[in-house]
Amino acid sequence: MESYTFLRAFADSWMLIALFAFFIGVCFWVFRPGATKTYESPANIPFRHEDKPAPPRAEDPSEEA
């Protein structure tokens, strides 16, 4: 039971701090000043074909039902 107690104490303290620091780091990475250009195109994917439907794609014979 010694290893369980040690791992439980580690998870309750240091791993919680490490995961929180990782989360904050990811948030800062996404909202950094230079990220606007990077995420502008993916953010507009739902609105690309708002005025007209997407062009028909070529039928693939392997996709038959």
TrEMBL record:
**Residue intervals passing through the bilayer:** 13-31
Which keywords belong to this entry? Membrane, Transmembrane, Transmembrane helix
Q: What Pfam family is a match for this entry?
A: FixQ
Q: Quick check: keyword Translocase in the entry? A: no
Q: Where is the composition biased (Basic and acidic residues)?
A: 47-65
Which portions of the sequence form the region Disordered? 38-65
Q: What is this protein called?
A: CcoQ/FixQ family Cbb3-type cytochrome c oxidase assembly chaperone
